[in-house]
Amino acid sequence: MARENYLFTSESVSEGHPDKVCDRISDAVLDAFLAEEPEARVACETFATSGLVVIGGEVGLRDQEQLKNYMGRIGQIARDCIKDIGYEQEKFHWNTCHVLNFLHEQSAHIAQGVNAADNKDEGAGDQGIMFGYAVDETPELMPAPIQYSHAILRRLAEVRKSGAEPTLGPDAKSQLTVRYEGGKPVDVTSIVLSTQHLDEDMTSDDVRAVVEPYIREVLPSGWITEATKWWVNPTGKFVIGGPDGDAGLTGRKIIVDTYGGAAPHGGGAFSGKDPTKVDRSAAYAARYLAKNVVAAGLAKRCTIQLSYAIGVAEPLIYADTHGTAVVPEEAIEAAIGKAMDLTPRGIRTHLQLNRPIYQRTAAYGHFGREPEADGGFSWERTDLAAALKAEV
Q1: What is the spatial distance between Cα 23 and Cα 299, in angstroms, rounded to a whole number?
Q2: Annotated catalytic sites, by residue?
């Protein structure tokens, strides 16, 4: 039997965290190529350190000659990302940092295999397991600790960029410990926030005075109590931030990107990968399915695993409802197989993933977001709930 009374902790990091700077640049490069060619194949990795950004990986276009025309744009794409995030530090400035571009065309042998697979029976490009998760403890059907950890940092970024709080810097981390009673979140026992600040004279108490009103605004009413412990910039000053303080790398925040440790993870990162790669697209599909199972009222909590074999189009489907289902889990698995084509091409078509919609996913979580009019976060829709319910 699942525990009902416990504490659970999740963390988030801001868009200015070194690893998130890299995720942002990799996804911006991906978007640029998808805008030019929806079937572009992209695997883009970014490394950032003091005064330097290095971009590498492979790009496949149907007309590889066009690739040369786009390569000159990569440096400006990176600078635009850094500028929007807000870095104008002496040793990490959008206008003065070095940007080295080592992207190259996709191997001819790999391209041959990919192009040959451009049909409805396209197999998976690699083996792998992907998980999706949903739970009814928040309106977004996300675990509360990660959802509100993201919300705190997103709100602080808003007031920083608007000019309302000019002393805040781009780099920040949040962490919430949530207390559960009867399996439901009821309050926060500790709040940890470390945020970069631009005024060197600010103390930890000064920083708390700035951020506390926004944290209280974001968290549900009554979740902060007299017993809640606050740890704001507990190590002291935090003036040097971003890649100037710590090196960053694409794909190192996969738990922040997903469920904050509340659910399994298959191990594959998302950013910089085009949607033909099931590490990304099937993880989105698994979240979509789990969310729709919960939205349909078939379970209060649901984990979906999709597992692929290289060259095989159809995955194996596993559903775990953690004892909360109103129908047999085997019936949910069968309904999923009927309600959605889970081949790599079927996922891309159903969720309309061949679009430049990925840069916005690079910070504050890939899940628990609002579906957008242009197809962004399409995997957060609940439009499959009725079909799933009808199948069981």
Answers
A1: 33
A2: 17, 19-20, 45, 58, 173, 238, 246-247, 252-253, 273, 277, 279
| Predicted confidence (pLDDT) per residue in 310-357, tens digit | 888 899 999 999 999 999 999 999 999 999 999 999 999 999 999 999
User: In the prediction, which pLDDT does 107 show?
Assistant: 63
3-state secondary structure the chain: CCCCCEEEEEEEECCCCHHHHHHHHHHHHHHHHHHHCCCCEEEEEEEEECCEEEEEEEEECCCHHHHHHHHCCHHHHHHHHHHHHCCEECCEECCCCEEEEEEEECCHHHHHHHHHCCCCCCCECCCEEEEEEEECCCCCCCCHHHHHHHHHHHHHHHHHHHCCCCCEEEEEEEEEEEEEECCEEEEEEEEEEEEEECCCCCCHHHHHHHHHHHHHHHCCCCCEEEEEEEEECCCCCCCCCHHHCCCEECCCCHHHHCCCCCCCCCCCCCCCECCCCHHHHHHHHHHHHHHHHHHCCCCCEEEEEEEECECCCCCEEEEECCCCCCCCHHHHHHHHHHHCCCCHHHHHHHHCCCCCCCHHHCCCCCCCCCCCCCCCCHHHCCCCHHHHHHHC
Model confidence at 109: pLDDT above 70: no
Crossing angle, helix 74-85 and helix 18-36, to 10 degrees? 130
pLDDT recorded at residue 391: 93
The structure tokens listed for 96 are 């003065």
Provide the whole-model pTM. Answer: 0.95
User: pLDDT for 252-303, tens place per residue?
Assistant: 999 999 999 999 999 999 999 999 999 999 999 999 999 999 999 999 999 9
| Segment 205-232 mean pLDDT | 98
